[in-house]
Each structure stands twice: as structure tokens, then as C-alpha cells.
Amino acid sequence: MSTPENIHTEFHRMLGRDAKEAQLKQRGHVFWFYGLSGSGKSTLANALERKLAEQGFITKILDGDNIRSGLNSDLGFSDADRQENIRRIAEVTRLFLDAGIVVFTSFITPKRELRAAAREIVGVDDITPVYVEASFETCAERDVKGLYAKAAAGGVKNFTGKDSSFEAPVAGDPDWTITTDNQTEEESLNQLLEKVLPLIKNS
Ligand SMILES: Nc1ncnc2c1ncn2[C@@H]1O[C@H](COP(=O)(O)OS(=O)(=O)O)[C@@H](OP(=O)(O)O)[C@H]1O
Ligand SMILES: Nc1ncnc2c1ncn2[C@@H]1O[C@H](COP(=O)(O)OP(=O)(O)O)[C@@H](O)[C@H]1O
């Protein structure tokens, strides 16, 4: 992180993340859910949050439509705006992480370079990118928000998977993949829980 001229950051005097994590009896971590609109990011983030709350974990979900209604309401869906969207979200995510919180993000994050930027800002050891995979056809069939029908009729500019590209992870990327096309929500949730818990339990 570069510090602008005449700015003197205060991080060193603050109670550190270790102390926060000890207080919360958990380890903070960021699970960066990404994938097409309708793939299941928000559904799984919410289901996980509720399951973990039952076990006493403190979590926070950051979700695309919510953030785009507030902090990022000045941004659209051009490549440059998506880049700025992800940059700001990653910075906010890091603040929650510093407080020892388990964060689930739910953003399309369509390009590998955007995911790399998020990892860089958050810190590679503290973030797990989770590809919520579902085909364009599956998502269009679900059409949770009516956006696929609207896009097909030409009513949505830069729609991901149609006129704005989505890059799947490639071999060697550290990302988890959860494929929701033919899996129940419960199956996906259980698969995730098994992998999430070891990363956030305070050993
Ligand atoms: N053009 C276009 N393409 C894709 N999605 C669109 C678009 N316009 C609006 N929406 C709605 O915005 C949500 C995606 O915002 P994100 O911040 O996650 O996008 S990105 O990460 O910056 O690419 C997305 O939410 P999810 O369905 O939860 O993915 C949509 O509800
Ligand atoms: N295995 C699964 N995991 C998550 N969602 C699923 C699954 N199978 C079907 N769905 C359905 O897919 C839709 C996903 O919508 P949503 O979670 O809003 O997607 P996103 O946040 O990626 O835009 C929901 O209607 C959900 O019920």
C-alpha cells in the first residue's frame, strides 16, 4: 500500500487483528464468491452465514446489488467501473478482516485480473476465491431477477456472459469451485461448510 503525501496512517496504535480474533474466538478470513449473475453466490453466502451464526461465528456479507446501491452507486458495468468497484470492495473487505470478522463477498468479479487485484489488496493468505459455477443457460433459466430476459431483449448494457465477458478460473489458480447447475443448495452448502470451518476455527 502506498501512502499519499502528507498522510500519516495510524494502524500501528490500533488494537491488532490478533487481539480481535482472540476476543471473537475465531480466525478472520475472506471467502470471495464470484460467478455469473444467478449462479448462487448470494444464496450460498447467506446460507453459510446462518449456519455459522448458529456456531457462534461473527460474519459479514458484502453483496453486489447492496454495495452498488450505496458506496458504489456512482459505478456502472464498463470494464473500468467494474475494476474500481472491486478495488473499493476489496479495501472495505480488508477493514472487516482487520476486525477479525469472517467475510463473504458476492460479486461477479468477471476477470482473472480483478480477482488477482482483490487478492493483492486483501492479502493472499487471508482470501479464498470461490468460483460459484453455473452455465449461462442455467442462470438464464433461473433468471432470478428477470435480467436475462431483459438482456436478451437488448435492455441491459454490458451484461456479463452476453456482451461483457466472464473468465472462468484456469488450472493452477488457487480458487475453489462449487458447481450449482445440478446440485441442491444444501449439497453446495455442506460442501462449502466442510472447507470453510477449518479456516476460521480458532485452534
Ligand atoms: N450489465 C450487468 N451485468 C451483470 N450484472 C448486472 C448488470 N447490470 C446490473 N447487474 C446487477 O448487478 C449485480 C452485479 O454487480 P457486481 O458488483 O457483482 O458486478 S462486478 O463484480 O463489478 O462485475 C448483479 O447481481 P448478481 O445477480 O447478484 O450477480 C445484477 O443484479
Ligand atoms: N446449488 C445451488 N446453490 C445456490 N443456489 C442454487 C442452487 N441450486 C439452485 N439455486 C438457485 O439459484 C438461484 C441463485 O440466485 P442468487 O443466489 O441470487 O445468485 P447470484 O447471487 O449469484 O446472482 C436461487 O434462486 C437459488 O435458489
Automatic annotation (TrEMBL):
Keywords: ATP-binding, Kinase, Nucleotide-binding, Phosphoprotein, Transferase. Its EC number is 2.7.1.25. ATP binds at residues 35-42. It catalyses: adenosine 5'-phosphosulfate + ATP = 3'-phosphoadenylyl sulfate + ADP + H(+). Pfam families: APS_kinase (PF01583). Pathway: Sulfur metabolism; hydrogen sulfide biosynthesis; sulfite from sulfate: step 2/3. The keyword Kinase applies. The keyword DNA-binding does not apply. InterPro entries: APS, APS_kinase_dom, P-loop_NTPase, Sulf_AdTrans/APS_kinase. Residues 27-172 form the APS kinase domain. One of its GO terms (molecular function) is adenylylsulfate kinase activity. It is an enzyme of class 2 (transferase). NCBIfam families: apsK, PRK03846.1. Belongs to the APS kinase family. Catalyzes the synthesis of activated sulfate. This is Adenylyl-sulfate kinase.
